[in-house]
Design a protein that fits this description.
There is one protein chain. With about 220 residues, the protein is of the alpha/beta class. It contains 9 helices and 6 strands, in the order H-H-E-H-E-H-H-E-E-H-E-H-E-H-H. It has helices at about 10, 20-35, 45-50, 85-100, 110-115, 140-150, 165-170, 190-195, 200-210; strands spanning about 35-40, 60, 120, 125-130, 160-165, 180-185. A 4-stranded parallel beta sheet has the order 3-2-5-6. Strands 1-4 form a two-stranded antiparallel ribbon. The radius of gyration is 17 Å and the shape is globular.
Length: about 220
């Protein structure tokens, strides 16, 4: 039984009982028992655990977790402290520096964003080591579609930062006019040149402030 200890528990209770999710759960049980799967099974829902539904101010949608040891811990684009910053995250930090003047931190742990109301949601929440997209098509997409539908229902304005094709496909669930959709290329090295200059961080703060909400402190603290 998934227990998030916040308002997501009630909102997702019925979804966890759906046949597709039960099939996904059985698949994951086998995968974790026989293979190396990321993140740790206790961190699969870390994004929802750290950012209650009622607290969400912005949503950053990623693809699937990092595939290398020690990196993924349940937040899109984030890595554990002490782990080398992956190229995509390095590009995010470059854009932050140019956009709002943040200094590049000595770690890539984005937990401080999650605690301020930034929901850092991958479209697929698990992956086999060294095999990107290995858990695609198993049911996670339907689950995260439902999360986006729930977010769309909120009447408090939120910003949705959709980077890359997978993330932008989730934008079809956001049609509530109070919300703001920001789209850009994925920050990976393959598309980083088209990600730079998107200024999504300053735009998010401007939008939040205009709607009477506190802005987000995007500066990651050094450890």
């Amino acid at each position: 039984m998934v227990k998030l200890n916040n308002d997501w528990d009630t909102l997702l209770a019925n979804e966890f009982e759906q046949e597709y999710y039960q099939n996904l759960r059985a698949f994951l049980k086998s995968e974790y028992a026989t293979k190396t799967i990321y993140p740790n099974m206790f961190n699969i829902f870390e994004s929802l655990r750290l950012t209650p539904y009622a607290n969400v101010k912005a949503v950053i949608v990623g693809q699937d977790p990092y595939i290398n040891a020690g990196e993924a811990h349940g937040l899109s684009f984030s890595v554990q402290a002490g782990i080398k910053t992956p190229p995509s995250l390095a590009n995010i930090f470059k854009e932050l520096s140019v956009d709002i003047g943040c200094t590049v931190p000595n770690n890539g742990n984005l937990t401080s964003w999650a605690q301020q109301g930034v929901l850092m949601l991958n479209t697929v929440l698990t992956v086999e080591a060294k095999k990107s997209r290995s858990h695609a098509g198993r049911g996670w997409e339907r689950f995260t579609d439902f999360v986006m539908e729930l977010l769309n229902r909120r009447t408090i304005p939120m910003a949705f930062l959709l980077w890359g094709r997978d993330a932008q496909q989730k934008g079809r669930f956001i049609d509530n006019p109070v919300h703001k959709i920001l789209q850009a290329a994925h920050p990976s090295p393959l598309a980083g040149g088209r990600f730079f200059g998107c200024r999504h961080f300053s735009q998010t703060n401007d939008f939040l402030e205009a709607s009477g909400q506190p802005s987000i402190d995007w500066q990651i603290p050094n450890i």
